[in-house]
Amino acid sequence: MTIDYIYFQILVVVLLVMLFASTFRILREYERGVIFLLGRFYKIKGPGLILVIPFVQQIVRVDLRIVTMDVPSQDIISKDNVTVKVNAVLYFKVADPQKAIINIENYLEATSQLAQTTMRSVLGQHELDDILSARDALNTDLQQILDQTTDNWGIKVTAVEIKHVDLDESMIRAIARQAEAERSRRAKVIHATGELEASKQLLEAARMLGQQPEAIQLRYLQTLTEITNDNSKIIVFPLPLELGKMFQSVTEQPLPPTETRSPNEIT
After folding, report:
1. Residues 138-153: what's their mean pLDDT?
2. In whole angstroms, what is the distance from residue 176 CA to residue 183 CA?
3. In this structure, what are the phi and psi dihedrals at residue 188, rounded to the nearest 5 degrees?
4. Would the pTM of this model clear 0.85, i.e. be above it?
5. What CA–CA distance (Å, rounded) separates 174 from 99?
6. Sequential DSSP letters for the chain
């Protein structure tokens, strides 16, 4: 009996030590403890060393760090009836531990499901071109909608980023043809603009050359100088009318009169 009594005392002491040790909890800097007193919310404790009364109080640890959640690919039909697969990444954190534990059963699962449904509904209201080009605006809209909905859960959505937009092969070919046509249109517009500017410059040059006919001769001689740098054997060039008229005026001038002497003067 004495030995059994000693064993019983040792067991009681061990249980008391374990019970006493369980009353002390250590929470890290990024953790908070939601304390329940007899099943009712009591207070939020942490970080550091806290005291939890066994059998009377219960603690639920909450991580306050930002959670990075991958939103699975969703089949979305855009406003212009194009089927695409879009996936995104969601960044959020617990802003109010009390709401995150009391108001929602599993805030991680709930936030993930809400992000999927919100992404389908929001992107379905936009055309394919907006989904591909206006991602910043769509990310902002998704972030605001999710943040408003999860505010009652104690969750703060910090950012939403659309990662990939997967298209069918037929749609990729159609977009490639559209891009090619757009580039061709831009090339034609640029070429037409260049022709218009060149015609204006030629018109201005013609006006200046018309006011100074000598400038035409200088331009003609400069063109001949440029042609002589070529190795071609035969050069065919037009003869300006002004140059022909100048030569004609020179040839048509009368010769100076010659002096005539009589035979007597010669002798």
Report:
1. 93
2. 11
3. -65, -40
4. no
5. 49
6. -HHHHHHHHHHHHHHHHHHHHHTEEEE-TTEEEEEEETTEEEEEE-SEEEE--TTTEEEEEEE-SPEEEEEEEEEEE-TTS-EEEEEEEEEEEES-HHHHHHT-S-HHHHHHHHHHHHHHHHHTTS-HHHHHH-HHHHHHHHHHHHHHHHGGGTEEEEEEEEEEEE--HHHHHHHHHHHHHHHHHHHHHHHHHHHHHHHHHHHHHHHHHHH-HHHHHHHHHHHHHHHHTS--S----PPPHHHHHHHHHHHTSPPPPPP---HHHH-
Over residues 246-258, the pLDDT tens digits come to 556 656 555 455 4
Kindly report the backbone phi and psi dihedral angles of residue 199, in degrees, each rounded to the nearest multiple of 5, phi listed first.
Answer: -65, -35
Query: Contact, 138 vs 130, CB < 8 A?
Result: yes
Query: How buried is 199 (Cβ within 10 angstroms: 0-12 exposed, 13-18 middle, 19+ buried)?
Result: exposed
* Average pLDDT across the chain, whole number: 82
**pLDDT exceeds cutoff 50 at 260:** no
Q: How confident is the model at residue 103 (pLDDT cuts 50, 70, 90)?
A: very high
Between 48 and 223, the higher pLDDT residue: 48
123 burial class (0-12, 13-18, 19+ CB within 10 angstroms)?
buried
Look at the block and give the residue holding tokens 């400069």. 222
Question: What are the pLDDT digits (tens) for 5-40?
Answer: 777 778 878 887 887 778 888 899 999 999 999 989
CA dist 74 and 121 (Å) reads: 11
Give backbone dihedrals phi and psi of 248, rounded to 5 degrees, phi first: -65, -40
For residue 116 the two structure tokens come to 């999927």
